[in-house]
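hiii, so i know i said id send this last week but things got crazy w the move. better late than never?? heres the sequnce for the chain we talked about at the cafe, plus the structure i predicted for it. fair warning i was half asleep when i ran it
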Amino acid sequence: MTASGEPAARAAPPRTGAHASVDAVWRLESARIIAGLARMVRDVGLAEELAQDALVAALEQWPESGVPDNPGAWLMAVGKRRAIDRIRRSRRFEQKLEELGHGLEAEAGEPPEFDLVADDEHIEDDVLRLVFTACHPVLSTPARVALTLRMLGGLSTDEIARAFLVPEATVAQRIVRAKRTLSEAGVPFEVPEGADRAARLSSVLEVLYLIFNEGYAATAGDDWVRADLCQEALRLGRILAGLAPGEPEVHGLVALMEIQASRTRARIGPSGEPVPLLEQDRGRWDRLLIRRGFAALLRAKEIGAPPGPYVLQAAIAACHAQAAGPEDTDWAQIAALYGVLARTAPSPVVELNRAVAVGMAEGPERGLALADALTAEPALRGYHLLPSVRGDLLARLGRRDEARAEFERAAGLTRNAPERRALLDRAAALSTP
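okay and structure toks below
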């Protein structure tokens, strides 16, 4: 055991050219493998440990034997064989063996010959169960994010730590505690029903939204955009939309992420600096992602439910995507949608965004009045975008000294280096006549 309480990892063999193939297969198949094993052993933590054992076996064998024709089946077979070994060593072997069924013994043959066909009818349900388990509200938000990226995204502890700029030991502890919490709380490996499902789904969507937003506009560090996090959240969102096709908010979140991700190339300048929306070269927006976003938004609307927060945000993003240029943006429609969003999911951040939209639709004085009303809001204390928005509105009103002070204050609050430089540049530009 390590000091963190996690089982000591086996030493991995030296990296070879086959290592990239193993990594790629793991990223694609890990969620299915962990989910299938969790259905067997009814313990997410143990399932992940068994899957990791299978991964180590692949690292040891594939460089010499080659990648199997069905690598996912190979990994699942090894994982199941490890599960059987665990059960045999347990005092409850007979009881567990009966629960798993007599057919399980036949699945413990050589990995390359294992066939996943018998499990095909279960696998989608298993992955959906894993989604709801990894994002269970009994866990803290950071723990849900780490566990989701580990079990559903196939990311290593080191990759998660680097993505969120925290020590690897911190992420490892979060994952260990999350698995322990799920076990101690007796969280069942199942998809909840009724009101509990709706509550849990909001937790799942929140985690994907947080992962995407951290990639879209990094809160700290030297990079303004972390495309890998955006892509991972989008990949998981697409999987979830396929698993839960009748949930409009799932399609709404996917639509939002598709459209937002379409701007990635245009959001970064030559030196890595942030490029504001109204200054972006729209010719660099990815039209395929925009079309996919529109299609997801249409699917959400066709379900017929009242629009939720993610559908509304996707509709706002669609308004921007439909405009050929900044001057063609329907700011009145965007302001109206923010008004609906503020009633549906009220928050100070939504109100701040509404102030921006109103400032564009009705003039900077009206937008500034709405932004000023938020200065006493406790939730926005220390939030750098409030002075940034006020600085922009003040500059448009010709109040240069006040605007410069706001941009400087915003620069002092942000922890993202490119954003800080951009804000200071805006402040400096206001110092010259």
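btw The beta strands are 220-221, 415-416. thought thatd interest u
miss u guys!!
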